[in-house]
Structures are given as structure tokens and as C-alpha cells.
Amino acid sequence: MSTAVPARTLRTMAFSRTSGGFIGHTRPSLRRVSLHPARVPVAYRQASTASELATDGRSVLTRTRNLLYGTSIVFFLGFGYLYITDTRASIHEWLVVPALRMIYPDGEEAHHAGTVALKGLYQFGLHPRERGNPDAAGDLRVEIFGHILDNPIGTSAGIDKNAEVPSPLLALGPGIVEIGGITPLPQPGNPKPRVFRIPSQNAMVNRYGFNSEGAEHVSMTLRQRVREYALRVGLGIDAEAERIVLDSEAGVPPGSLVPGRLLAVQVTKNKSTPDNDIEAVKRDFAFGIAHLGKYSDIIVVNVSSPNTPGLRALQNVAPLTHILTTCVKAASEVDRKTKPAVLVKVSPDEDSEEQVSGICEAIWQSGVDGVIVGNTTKRRPDPIPEGYSLPPKEAAILQEQGGYSGPQLFPRTLELVKRYRKMLDEGPKSTDAESPTESLRRKTIFATGGITNGGQALQILEAGASVAMVYTAMIYSGAGTITRIKTEMRNELREK
Fold it and tell me: Which residues cross the membrane (predicted)?
């Protein structure tokens, strides 16, 4: 007896066969069925449309909010980068410097931390720099040793003792950066602590004693800097590329590697070299020049530090003339087409008429190109303002052995510049020069000591100096010091 299969079951089985299912499979298909819009209830269609609109609205709102957040972050990061890396930003003086002083009570540790930070930031392009090229107007240009400097402000040696950050310092806007002092052989300097702050006076006492990595180490650092520059401008990184840069064929000064700027390298003798052995002292200076002269625009011969016993005795006429004559000869033998200029750095404490006259005579007789007037002093000036009573801790610091630096030195620096300018302009007292390079060309004066603002810099220049150099002012005012001084100079010139 046959049993009839319902038509609905047959339709289901047939679908199973056509869809790849097993014959006889009776489970309904899971295929999505599209209904004609006319068959969808009106209420359902309205609810679905409202839900989709709400979802789209939330999506648009989210995208807009994310766009605003992203734009704001990019804007603030960009603005923050431009602000923090601009030397005009007050953050450098009012936040960075106080923070370093608070974190590092020891002045030398703070200086080292600042140098490390500046070096690291420069490698990533995050270093402070002068923006807008304010020197382009040419209102502060000066000519030095055949070079046109963008401005007459320089940084003194001591800020960068071992050529760790010459490029970041040049980016801060000075016309000249001086590095060093550098001894022939490495030496540790005096025992620590050896740097002491006097915050109420914006002054310092230091007795570093020429801690130095040595001439060979620093020369290799400077050589690497030259080769990296050559590679960056497409010359390569070999010896020939180095030669092109050093022979000024790359269109930049061979020391600074920056148009309108110069690099001065300060050399001195080792502490272990006897002061009374002039031949040994001459060998020390000649060694330093032989290694470092190639990578400098100016060689500075330092015989003025108060922290190396007996060094200042070399400022007497006879020994100074012998030493400087040797230095001029060594500079003339530097393996480079253009030779570095030579300056001698003298002490502000050697200020008697006889001492100043003797130094000027040694300058003329040796044939050096000029003099840097000023250094730290063994003397302890009165606090500013007059009558001010120093806190006990700062008063104790004044009793520390070492060289004093700060704004109080400015009047003496200004007076010494006037005296050196007058005596040097009078020419040599005798004409029996020991060096064939001696000439009657006007000698150049750089000045350092207590210069803290644009008005003082202008006074120094009007007194006869070609360059005004700063050191302690940068320690207290930070990366924007040079820009601030130049701005003050321009404002005062406009008023006049």
C-alpha cells in the first residue's frame, strides 16, 4: 500500500537536492529571503530607517571628534616643537635653567647634564636654534680676519671643553664659538667639587684646572664633524672630501662649517709641564696647534687661567714672546690652504701699566693677530647692588679658591679693552720682530668678562673690541642668551 508524500515535503526535498543537501533532508533552508518593500510593515521600515540614521549620525560625530582631536594634537605638538626649539622662548631661562639647578645642586653636574641634553636633542633635530635669520639684515656684521661675521657676539671657552656641541652652540646664534681649553695630553683637572654658584649675583667661582680629553681626542671629534658635513653636502666621507671642506672649497669656513660664523679652539699646556721650562711649554702649545689648527678658524693661546699654578707667569714679556712666536709658526704650518688666526688670552688681573704694555709688545713682536682681554679673576669684587649682604652660604663660596666670573667684572673688562686698544694702536716699541709674520696690521681685540646684555656689548665694541664674548650669562640665562643680547643691541641702535 503506497503512501502519498505531501506536496510541501516534495518541494523541500527538491530544494535540498538543488542546494547540495542530502536527498530527503527536510530541514528548512537558512538562505536569507528578501521581502518586497511593499510586504514589510510600515512601522518596521520607519524604525529601521531611524536606527540607520542614528547610527550614521553617531559615526559622523565620532569621525568629526577624532578629526578634531587629531588636529589638535598635531597642532599642539607642532606649536610646542616650534616654541621649545626657538631661542626666543622664555622657557629656556625661566624653566630649563632653574630645573637644572634644582635637580643638580652641583654646578658641574648641571653643566654636564645640559651638554648631554643639547647633544642628544641636536641628533634628533630637537635642539634650540635661532629662527627667522635675524642676522640677515646685516646691521651687526663685522669683518674678522678676512671673514664677514653675521654678528659680533661669541661664546667663551669652558661651555664646551671637548668639542661635544660646537654645532648646537652655533645654532644658538653667536658669530663665534670658542671651545676648550684643550691640553696636549688628557688630564683630569682639579678634584671635585670645583664649580660653585653665587645665584644672588648671577656669578660663579670655578677651579676646573683644565680638565681635558686631550688634543688627539678632540681633533678626532672635530675631524669626524668635518667628514659628516662633507657627506651631508654630497662630497663623500673620505680624505678627499675632508680636504675640500678644509681648503674652503665647500664655501664655508673650515672650522665652523657655517657661513658667517667662526670656530675658535683654545689650547694650553699640561699641568705637569714645568712652567720654567719654556721649551717644554712651547712644545705643548705647538702639539695642540698641530692637531687642532686644521679644524679651527682661530687658535686661542691661553696663558691666563688662575687655576693652573704658574701659568700666568708666562705672561711676562720674554717668555710670552717666545711662546707666541712658536704658536704663530705652528699655525702657519697647518696642513690647509687657509691658516687659522692666532689670538692670545690674557688675565684681567695683569692690569698694571707695565704688564699691559709688556703683553702688547709681545703681541707685536710675535706676530699674533690679536688678544682676548679677560678671563676669570682671583679677585673678589663687591656684591651688586652696593651694600648688599650676601647669604652666609654664598659668602662662604667667595672664600673658595678659583676664578670668579659674573656681571661684576664688566667695568674692569671695559676699562682693559680701552687700554689695550690704545696701546696696541700705538704700534710696537721696537721693530726687531722675531717672527717674519709680524706686520703693522691693526690687532684684533675680543673681550670677555661680565658681559650680560646688549648695552654692555655695544659699550665693549665702541671701546675698541671686535667681538664681545659671554660665558656666565649663558649659565644663568640659558639657550636664549645670544638672541636676547643681539635683540637688545638692535633696539639700542635703533633708538640712537
Answer: 67-84
